[in-house]
Amino acid sequence: MIFDTAGEHNTEAALLAAGARAAELGIQEIVVSSTSGKTASKALALLPGFRIVVVTYHCGFREPFRNVMPVSVRAELENRGARVVSATHALSGVERSIAKTYGGTYPVLLVADTLRLFGQGTKVAVEIAIMAADAGALSGADIVSVGGTAKGVDTALVLKPAHQNNVFKDLFIKEIICKPRTA
């Protein structure tokens, strides 16, 4: 499925497409990016029967020592059965700080920019799969990973997840379920 434009207006369709393909393939785990918890809540409502892993920004992403997702929202999502992971961006982390401080381009940032050639949602879907794997939130089986451009989600991938120390050896994008045609 190809959406004409990127953005949160594709959220419901992307989640439904992700769930339908996961069901066809017998995939049990769906990883979803969510900052405020709004997309995660929609995923829980639209995708019953799946193990939902929600990945959000690391503490301090916007303000030092502050979580972006409110603690009450995280608790509600977990009470509804989601596993919520807050983690450092796998495709930037410390390299972003080095680049901002000293300038230049660094290998992990090149990987992120290369994935963005397929759209921001593709980069996010790959990145959150790595973050969820590193947090111990995945079984190691194939997953559907759902990411987006700014707010909501618009991209879903079937992939074999991997930890960041084995990305080039083990991670593999098997299918693009949906993505936007334009950024």
Write structural notes for this entry.
The chain is α/β, with parallel strands linked by helices and about 180 residues long. The protein is built from seven helices and seven strands, in the order E-H-E-H-E-H-E-H-H-H-E-E-H-E. It has a seven-stranded mixed beta sheet, sandwiched between helices. It is globular, with a radius of gyration of 15 Å. The two termini are about 15 Å apart. The mean pLDDT is about 95.
Topology:
Elements: E1 2-3, H1 11-25, E2 29-33, H2 38-46, E3 51-56, H3 71-79, E4 83-86, H4 93-102, H5 107-116, H6 120-134, E5 143-147, E6 155-160, H7 167-170, E7 172-180
Parallel strand pairs: 1-7, 2-3, 2-5, 3-4
Antiparallel strand pairs: 5-6, 6-7
Give a brief description.
This protein is α/β, with parallel strands linked by helices.
Key attributes of the depicted protein:
Pyruvate Kinase, Chain: A, domain 1; 20% strand
Share in β-strands: 15-25%
Number of domains: 1
Helix vs. strand class: alpha/beta
CATH class: Alpha Beta
- Helical coverage, percent range: 25-40%
